[in-house]
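User: I've been trying to design a sequence by hand for this structure and keep getting stuck. Would you show me what you'd pick, starting by listing the structure so we're on the same page?

Assistant: Good idea, let's start from the same input. This is the structure you sent:
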């Protein structure tokens, strides 16, 4: 059996889609299907119910899902132990964070933690959302920070993972503007004159949220895709050059809005934006896997810090919700 088979199976269990998981795992769908079949052959049982749509696990698949996650964690812990990293990093907090949050949320948050909680040694892995989740599942980090929306959930098991809501922010449309703050492009565009559209790659989490906005819009939005990447920062730079309209988290354009380099392109229409939750996850400590003391202290502090008031991007005024890690997260 190969480790990548386990990773493939966990991905499939979380997405319920062969095509989506193949895309996330960067392999063709036929190759991905063969790897799942190889795992089933090795185990001697069917893990996937191929008579249903969408894809779902068999009873054996449900049982093996938890075992696969545990095995991946043990494999990564063993590797870390043999590399001599476990004892060396007990005082370092390892974060897995999507690229955008690593640039917008994390620097200010760590500054505030240094003042209120105390300085911590940290190591940050900037990844896409799927890889950040997999890093947590595979015990490759202590804490995972990510965006969340109920219609694009992270599939994590609430019996195994704790969660704190750190804040909220809005994803909306922006475009380059003149010195008076008037944007070059304004939604919705027309069928005859569609707006140039700077889009996320198909595997980007923010791109899936943009799709929700476009699909839900009662007033159709007319775009013509002219540029694509999975990096929000790359899209922002293209927008600053006047290449088109882009949907970005508001925290990523704070400076550009203040300096009148970018402006909202949605005219303040609420249905053309979407609110995202910012969540922090950890694997729930057990007797067998207690985790790092510094992580437990930090988690307790954050649970006490975040109250029930709904907040914006600012970490210090966030909203707490203890560990509901879910199959619908």
């Amino acid at each position: 059996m190969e480790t990548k088979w386990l990773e493939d199976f966990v991905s499939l269990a979380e997405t319920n889609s062969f095509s989506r998981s193949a895309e996330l795992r960067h392999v063709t769908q036929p190759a991905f299907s063969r790897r799942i079949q190889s795992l089933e052959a090795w185990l001697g049982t069917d893990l996937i119910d191929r008579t249903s749509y969408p894809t779902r696990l068999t009873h054996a698949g449900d049982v093996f899902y938890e075992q696969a996650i545990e095995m991946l964690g043990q494999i990564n812990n063993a590797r870390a132990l043999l590399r001599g990293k476990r004892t060396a990093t007990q005082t370092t907090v390892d974060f897995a964070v999507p690229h955008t949050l690593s640039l917008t949320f994390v620097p200010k948050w760590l500054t505030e933690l240094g003042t209120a909680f105390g300085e911590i040694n940290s190591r940050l892995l900037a990844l896409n959302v799927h890889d950040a989740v997999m890093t947590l599942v595979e015990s490759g980090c202590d804490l995972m920070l990510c965006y969340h929306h109920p219609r694009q959930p992270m599939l994590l098991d609430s019996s195994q993972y704790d969660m704190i809501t750190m804040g909220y922010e809005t994803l909306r449309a922006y475009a380059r503007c003149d010195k008076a703050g008037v944007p070059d492009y304004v939604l919705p565009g027309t069928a005859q004159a569609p707006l140039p559209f700077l889009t996320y790659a198909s595997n980007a989490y923010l791109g899936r949220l943009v799709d929700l906005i476009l699909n839900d819009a009662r007033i159709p939005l007319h775009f013509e895709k002219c540029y694509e990447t999975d990096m929000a920062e790359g899209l922002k730079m293209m927008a600053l050059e006047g290449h088109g309209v882009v949907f970005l988290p508001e925290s990523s354009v704070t400076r550009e809005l203040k300096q009148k380099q970018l402006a909202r392109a949605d005219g303040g229409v609420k249905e053309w934006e979407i609110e995202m939750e910012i969540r922090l996850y950890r694997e729930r400590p057990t007797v067998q896997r207690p985790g790092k003391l510094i992580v437990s202290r930090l988690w307790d502090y954050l649970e006490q810090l975040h109250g029930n008031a709904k907040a914006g991007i600012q970490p210090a005024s966030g909203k707490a919700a203890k560990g509901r890690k879910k199959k619908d997260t």
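That's my pick for every position. To get oriented when you compare it with your attempt: The two ends are 29 Å apart (CA to CA). The longest strand covers residues 161-176.
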